[in-house]
Amino acid sequence: MNIIPVIDLKDGLVVSAQQGKRHAYQPIHSTLCASSLIEDVLTGFLSVYPFKTLYIADLNAISHQGNNQKLINDVISNNPSITFWVDNGIQIQQLPSYDALKYKPVIGSESQNTTHFPGTTAHLINTILSLDFFPEKGYTGPAELLNNASLWPQHIILMALERVGKDRGPDIERLSHFCRKHPEKDFIAAGGIRHEHDLLQLEKTGVHHALIASALHSGVINTLVIEKLQAKKMPRKNITEAF
After folding, report:
1. Cα–Cα distance between 160 and 64 in angstroms, integer?
2. Which parts of the chain register pLDDT below 70?
3. What's phi and psi for 34, nearest 5 deg?
4. Residue ranges of the alpha helices (H) in the chain?
5. Greatest CA separation for the chain
6. Strand 26-27 relative to strand 53-58: parallel, antiparallel, unpaired?
7. Number of structural domains found in the chain
8. What is the rounded CA–CA span in Å between residue 30 and residue 235?
9. Are 1 and 230 in contact (CB under 8 A)?
10. pTM for the complete prediction?
11. CA–CA dist 83, 104 (Å, integer)
12. Which of 18, 117, 156, 192 is in Cβ range 3.0-4.6 Å of 142 for a Cys bridge?
């Protein structure tokens, strides 16, 4: 199991995500660090395990209320051995200008134009796609991006925002559906992961990568749990080797 820690940035601080209700997100309280500054949170994560991949969501950029790009650029420059995935609300049409980036762009379905969805998505090949599912609304984004798997890159996040920050467990039913229907793709679970048992359940489902924040900050998923999971033989190439 490949665990990818999550950093949600809002107004310059790392915040605790709750079911996609971004207006209510508050600075993180963690057993791993004394503050909600991104440098402290990253140091806290690395004290648990030498993670090679981290996910950052710039919630200001996604919500069109400014951005935290300077903070993100500084963290990336200071940690050259880590691969960063960054969701900053980028649209597919903007990707050609991102060729020189030192991070992997995350294409969030919620950020795409549903009216003028591009006819070609050739640029998606070197990105991470996030299919975003919100409370009550369900999938949010262009229908083509959900229904046409030929548009997808190899790695797809299934973002269950209705479960983010809640003690509900991952959406095993949805994850199982996608794994059965598209066994050639690598799916990444996001939202609701609580403990080791959830991760073992994901492995049985065919999901070998997970975005996690709350369970790391609480210490429920710790060094011992991660080392035990990483010791298991993975049936697919580790995602950090795929880029």
Report:
1. 21
2. 19-21, 24, 96-100, 119-123, 165-166, 232-243
3. -90, -10
4. 38-48, 59-62, 69-78, 143-147, 172-181, 196-205, 214-217, 223-230
5. 48
6. unpaired
7. 1
8. 33
9. yes
10. 0.91
11. 7
12. 117
Structure confidence by residue, pLDDT tens digits, 23-34: 767 899 999 999
Q: What is the DSSP letter of 122?
A: G
| β-strand partners of 26 | 16
pLDDT in tens, 15-69: 987 765 677 678 999 999 999 999 999 999 999 999 999 999 999 999 999 999 9
The answer to whether 142 touches 93, Cβ cutoff 8 Å, is: no
Taking the CA atoms of residue 144, residue 146, residue 152 and residue 153 in that order, the dihedral angle to the nearest 10 degrees is: 140
Paired sense of beta strands 13-16 and 26-27, if any: antiparallel
> Which residues share a beta bridge with 58?
9
Looking up tokens 């609701």 gives: 192
- Domain extent, residue 21, equals 2-241
Distance (Å, rounded) from C-alpha 201 to C-alpha 237? 19
The token duo for 115 is 């009216």
